[in-house]
């Protein structure tokens, strides 16, 4: 079983996808880490994340250690990830990796094009969203919790810029799959979002597998 969880930044898709994976006994993959790690490798090399050649080389040379780095979050990493994700050669380099992960044992994958490109045949697709203002508030609190200084207005502006870049790119833009169930978490906490998602899964699948 593959469950696709897509949506914009700070909508709660990562938290939700991890909980769904645990509840269903499935592996979990945050596909955004692949793009973040690619972007970080490009920055480390002193190159521009918008440079197709540098970004594609970084994607082809990713290692498991790259995904475990501690500097894959924050505004610089966010924008680098969004920039490399717009490059067709990067997406091609990472596509087979994601598909093999899901096909091996089933999985819950979260990202921005899981239901539209990576696993368009997935039996369940969720598109998790929330208002830009609420997502910016969550991101601000997350940064504060990590001890990172942040300005709420700047956080909102950066999030909106990331949204625009993700939605307007020519390759795999951020859009709900035609058959995705849209889950708006603006007014939902993590528990309520999980309950709503489980209800949607039962509606689509009937009886659900239990974690082993």
From TrEMBL:
ATP binds at residues 7-15. Residues 3-198 form the Cytidylate kinase domain. The keyword rRNA processing does not apply. Its main location: cytoplasm. GO terms for molecular function: ATP binding; dCMP kinase activity. It catalyses: dCMP + ATP = dCDP + ADP; CMP + ATP = CDP + ADP. InterPro entries: Cytidylate_kin (IPR003136), Cytidylate_kinase_dom (IPR011994), P-loop_NTPase (IPR027417). It is found in: Cytoplasm. One of its GO terms (cellular component) is cytoplasm. It is an enzyme of class 2 (transferase). The keyword Cytoplasm applies. Its EC number is 2.7.4.25. GO terms for biological process: pyrimidine nucleotide metabolic process. Keywords: ATP-binding, Cytoplasm, Kinase, Nucleotide-binding, Transferase. HAMAP family: Cytidyl_kinase_type1. NCBIfam families: cmk (TIGR00017). Belongs to the cytidylate kinase family. Type 1 subfamily. This is Cytidylate kinase. It comes from Roseicella aerolata. The gene is cmk.
């Amino acid at each position: 079983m593959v469950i696709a969880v897509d949506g914009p930044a700070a909508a709660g898709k990562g938290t939700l996808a991890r909980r769904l994976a645990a509840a269903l006994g499935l592996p979990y993959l945050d596909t955004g880490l692949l793009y973040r790690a690619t972007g970080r490798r490009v920055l480390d090399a002193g190159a521009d994340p918008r440079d197709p050649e540098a970004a594609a080389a970084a994607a082809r040379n990713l290692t498991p250690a790259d995904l475990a780095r501690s500097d894959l979050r924050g505004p610089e990493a966010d924008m680098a990830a969004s920039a490399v994700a717009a490059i067709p050669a990067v997406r091609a380099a990472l596509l087979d990796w994601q598909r093999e992960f899901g096909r091996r044992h089933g999985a819950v994958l979260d990202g921005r094009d899981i239901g539209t490109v990576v696993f368009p045949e997935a039996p369940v697709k969720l598109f998790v969203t929330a208002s830009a203002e609420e997502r910016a508030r969550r991101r601000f609190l997350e940064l504060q919790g990590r001890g990172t200084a942040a300005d709420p207005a700047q956080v909102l502006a950066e999030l909106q810029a990331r949204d625009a870049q993700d939605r307007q790119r020519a390759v795999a833009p951020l859009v709900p799959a035609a058959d995705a169930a849209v889950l708006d978490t603006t007014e939902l906490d993590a528990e309520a979002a999980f309950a709503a998602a489980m209800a949607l899964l039962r509606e689509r699948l009937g009886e659900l597998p239990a974690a082993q």
